[in-house]
Amino acid sequence: MLPIFRPLKDPAVATVWSGLAASTIGEDLFRVAVVWIAAEQIGNAAGYVNAAQYGAMLVAGLLGASVIDRWRADRAMIWAKYASAALALLPVAGAYVWGVSIPLLVLSVMGIAALRMVFTPALQSAVPVLVPDRDAMQAINGLFDATWRLARLIGPMLAAVLNSILPVIHFLSVTAAGFVLSGVAIWAVRDRLFDPTHQPQRGRGGLHGAWDALVDGARLMRREHTIGTLLLVNALANGPWSVALQLCIALMVKQHDPRLFDFEGLAALGLIIGVSGAGDVAGNLIAGSVRFRRPLSTMFLGYVAMGAGFALIAVAAWVLPNPWMLPAMMAAGLLAGFGGPFFFIPMITRLQTAYRGPEIARVFRLRLAVMAGSMLIFNIAATPLFDLLGPTLTEFLFGLLILALGIGGHFYFGRIESRPAKLPT
Q1: Residue 23: how many CB atoms within 10 A of its CB?
Q2: φ, ψ (nearest 5 deg) of residue 263
Q3: What is the pTM of this model?
Q4: Distance CA 19, CA 137 (A)
Q5: CA-to-CA distance for 383 and 405, rounded, in angstroms?
């Protein structure tokens, strides 16, 4: 058995994993539906819908920490999932009254994104409690990361299948069911997800408390310089990644109309993003099971693969006719997806071994806030870039940006790792 799957021998881990799989697959189906509905309703301005969710994540990450840190991790995760289910159903209910409503869709997107800032840091802080053996930390991080990456394969593929039997708005109903199943799974093993000796961190309320949490997260990042650098690089890289994967490809499908057999439109989009998810899963199986001799420089090779893949998706759209265009875009998407786990899994394992309990939540929430800020900026810039350059050239340039980040980081940390005595802590 691959090391990444060994944690599933623990029934509690298997239960949490199955719940995460249900909700993350639903959430990736939700993303595909939202982008497609927005692209149909408002065209290039669909970037503003994506930007709204990242704005909500930024606000929740910066202002909510002083409140969220007072909650037990298990309770925070359970109620975040139930509330997300209600928000996912909001545009569905509205569709029966007013038709498809972009304002209700934006409200749903923003609410679910804000609740992600509650759930994800709580999960990261609960992992060392669920699996106290530090030697198993890389495996369980690989396993949980595989949940999100498997969703990027199954969610879009599910969209391609459901497109023939369900209206796109009801993809959100499937998402809501996934959230409910996740909440039930976490409730079933809630006693394994919190440390009874842990006392919630108390602090000042309001804006003063938010400032305290922000400063504390920054202080913790400075304490572990290398980890802080990796967290910030990863957060900033998510900006161009979110536009390249979630927006550019959808608009490119509408513009270039790649097709193969009966796969076209939303089905073609689902295939491209789904194959990218297959690359994610393949990379996860390797990165979650193998300990690299030079982990820091190897991590950045993941961004080399990701950036090259995004750039090649654009090249395929430019130079290949149907029926070759769609398979080539899928192959490039496979390469783009393969690189992500090589950076994320070692990064999150370092974080969980360097910090403890509430420290993990605060550092991870600050990382998510920086990531949300990066995504917000890039998604706001996406609409004028689409108008000026078109989605295909934007995809190509953002791919080159991630590629350059990967090459620079690989050589920089390669030089550091060649002098282990001087490796920063």
Answers
A1: 28
A2: -90, 115
A3: 0.72
A4: 19
A5: 23
Contact 251, 393 (CB under 8 A): no
Distance CA 222, CA 80 (A): 30
Provide the 8-state DSSP code for 10: S
CA distances from 315 to 84, 335, 339 (A): 38, 14, 19
Cα 282 to Cα 299: distance, rounded to the nearest angstrom: 15
Tell me: the pLDDT tens digits for 136-161?
666 777 777 777 777 777 877 788 77
Most confident of 16-25, 118-127, 209-218, 347-356: 16-25
What 3 state SS string does 126-156 have? HHHHHCCCHHHHHHHHHHHHHHHHHHHHHHH
- What does 96-133 look like in DSSP terms, one character per residue? HHTSS-HHHHHHHHHHHHHHHHHHHHHHHHHHHHH---
Q: Which of 239, 284, 257 is nearest to 376 (CA)?
A: 239
What mean pLDDT, rounded, does the chain reach?
Answer: 82
* Paired tokens of 407: 């090459």
